[in-house]
């Protein structure tokens, strides 16, 4: 082996083949070959490859770890205080978003400090949003409910601004934020399942000694833990812990979602469900649309930069066409209901959202079609996703701050 390494110094391909075939033998013989040829740049690279060790080791005293811990505790305490006021029906439950999202934004600002203008904008918008939300009356009116539904989207955009920092206009940073969201959801769900198992075990252990701690535990431990866990997940994803999980999940779930939806839509047609007349079914139709859009975007963000097309690309294209079909039916049904029953805040909001999604899907579909026809690269598809994100944020802001004034 030593002789073979020396003989193939100028043949990197053969060295790689030898290493993959017999890695242990290669490592043992490499030292001798390296000593005999200390001036070889090829062997110098192999030496670093075989003997490389991380200089920086994880430590509980790392500044970012300590900052994450402080933020997690503050987020948990803040959420518990907010929940106390929610229980007393002094403020709306949606205020709990302010116990999580601002702290996520704070972590990103710490990791990637922006210019003062961006920082002041972030702080001002979070503060104004909080004051504005709590100036609204606690009534179950359509315009107020729409604020509760759209405000988290607007705050999510603000967290994205904190994530991208000074590069908020760069498509690559917006794409990274979308990828972060996918990996965050995967990691948080995994940890949340573990937390639920721990909760069930704790409940049962206290029941054995005749104590029912359910109410106390959920108010003080589960709520605190769920919020703090979100900050921990942000830290772990930013450390690239889950980057190898998400691409595989996207490859698994995309075909499953496509098959499930096709079967569901065929069943809907078979049983004669009509979104034009059935309001609840129309709402579920829109829910399906949002789910397909989310799965498709997640799959696109997790796909590689390779120009080579795979089966996943064709599945994604089929999902986009299916989503466009669903959105077209939903748009027709909403337009029918508007012409038949008049304008309400809910109908107007749903109509505009469907129009925005329809336009975005058309852009993504055309970009994908050009990619599959070898007219453009995968970058055009990502542009169709990332460049459209501010449109959703602006509409969420409009519904949140203007709808209550109009209606």
From TrEMBL:
TM annotation in the entry: 65-83, 89-110, 117-139, 145-164, 185-205, 217-237, 249-271, 283-302, 314-336, 348-369, 389-406
Keywords: Membrane, Transmembrane, Transmembrane helix
Signal peptide: none
Domain of life from the UniProt record: Bacteria
Protein name in UniProt: DUF4153 domain-containing protein
């Amino acid at each position: 082996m030593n002789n073979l390494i020396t003989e193939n110094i100028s043949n990197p391909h053969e060295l790689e083949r030898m290493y993959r075939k017999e890695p242990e033998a290669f490592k043992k013989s490499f030292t001798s070959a390296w000593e005999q040829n200390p001036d070889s740049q090829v062997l110098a690279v192999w030496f670093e490859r075989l003997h490389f060790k991380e200089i920086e080791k994880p430590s509980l005293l790392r500044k970012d770890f300590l900052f994450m811990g402080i933020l997690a505790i503050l987020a948990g305490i803040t959420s518990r205080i907010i929940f106390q006021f929610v229980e007393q029906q002094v403020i709306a439950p949606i205020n709990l978003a302010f116990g999580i999202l601002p702290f996520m934004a704070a972590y990103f600002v710490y990791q990637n400090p922006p210019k003062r203008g961006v920082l002041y904008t972030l702080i001002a918008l979070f503060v104004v949003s909080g004051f504005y939300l709590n100036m609204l009356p606690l009534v179950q009116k359509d315009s107020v409910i729409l604020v509760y539904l759209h405000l988290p989207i607007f705050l999510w955009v603000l967290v994205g601004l904190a994530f991208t920092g000074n590069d908020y206009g760069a498509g690559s940073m917006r794409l990274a934020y979308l990828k972060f969201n996918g990996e965050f959801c995967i990691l948080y769900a995994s940890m949340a399942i573990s937390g639920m198992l721990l909760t069930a075990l704790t409940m049962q252990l206290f029941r054995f000694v005749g104590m029912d701690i359910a109410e106390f535990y959920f108010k003080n431990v589960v709520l605190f833990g769920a919020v703090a866990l979100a900050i921990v997940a942000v830290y772990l994803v930013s450390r690239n812990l889950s980057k190898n999980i998400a691409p595989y999940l996207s490859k698994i779930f995309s075909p499953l979602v496509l098959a499930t939806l096709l079967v569901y839509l065929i069943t809907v047609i078979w049983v004669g469900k009509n979104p034009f007349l059935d309001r609840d079914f129309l709402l579920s139709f829109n829910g399906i649309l949002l789910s397909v859009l989310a799965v498709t975007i997640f799959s696109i963000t997790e796909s590689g930069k390779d120009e080579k097309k795979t089966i996943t690309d064709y599945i994604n294209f089929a999902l986009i066409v299916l989503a466009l079909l669903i959105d077209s039916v939903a748009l027709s049904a909403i337009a029918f209901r508007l012409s038949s029953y008049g304008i309400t805040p809910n109908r107007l909001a749903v109509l505009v959202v469907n129009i925005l999604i329809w336009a975005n899907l058309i852009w993504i579909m055309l970009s994908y079609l050009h990619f599959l026809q070898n007219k453009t690269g995968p970058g055009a598809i990502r542009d169709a996703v990332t460049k459209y994100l501010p449109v959703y944020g602006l509409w969420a802001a409009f519904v949140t701050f203007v709808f209550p004034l109009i209606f």
